[in-house]
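step: validate -> pass
step: tokenize input -> pass
step: predict -> running
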Amino acid sequence: MIILAIESSCDESSVAVVTGEGEILSNVIRSQIKNHKRFGGVVPELASRLHAESFHRITDKALEEANMTLSDVDVIAVTSGPGLEGALLIGVCYAKTLGVLIGKPVIPINHLHGHIFAGIKAGDSPFPYVGLIVSGGHTLLVKCDDGGVFDLLGVTRDDACGEAFDKVARMLGLAYPGGPEIELQAKDGDPKAVRFPRAMIKDGLEFSFSGLKTAVMQYVKANPDTSVPDICASFQACVGDILVAKATRACKQVGTTLLVVSGGVAANAYLSGRLQSELADQGITVNTPPKGLCTDNAGMIGLAACRWIDWQGIQERPFHVVANLGVRIP
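step: predict -> pass
step: emit ->
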């Protein structure tokens, strides 16, 4: 079985070709970072227009890299949410149109399911496990059971983790996107230089990063001459403490020895390294997808489609394009 997967939830246009066994034959991503960089963040209307301009070309490229044609495709899988509503609509309309033209079924895939399954191969059966999604739009913990049963354990009450990285980077005059810039600066800094607050670290499975962001802002205003690398290292260490504490608590609550970390922030080598080393001391294995599958991409949507097809067969389900107005896991 050959799956053509389409992703357009935010500012990456992506098309992938994935087999029913979970092998990614191609995964073409057209990033829009350079288009949004001068605005300091994603402009939704611009993102939608760029998606519309990109999909024909990247579909051709994805099929070419996989040595396939549209006639080889058995099913089309497309992100239906959560995400930016206009961007999602472009991807869904493209997928549905393509499905009509080639006479193939189109199935909707939850963007968060894609992140969750990015670190698990289709043939593996590690259930139950805990998924930690940390990205620019989401920060949450979820219990994952076989058959597509998901229980939301905890979510951020305010800012997403990646959003906090971007906003702190802007305060420090660093370029967008802020996550890679902070990670780079932090390599030359002292993580103990500033003791930022670890909100809600001792209790529960929910997150809060708004207070941390405000604390950085107030510190920068009061100490304008402090080393930027020191602030970045201290901020990053604070986030690391929070993620380790929450992930450990979630795994113990679920009774699992497997944590799957995904989302754009999972590409941060410092954070993923801390999770792997500190949870290993407690007998918990941490799976992190390859860097190319951490950020938004169609490959992960294809992997999620493999799971749903295993569980439910190829059947078209109702489309509900869901904007980023809350968490949607089930």
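step: describe -> The domain at 2-117+293-312 is CATH 3.30.420.40 (Nucleotidyltransferase; domain 5).
step: cleanup -> pass
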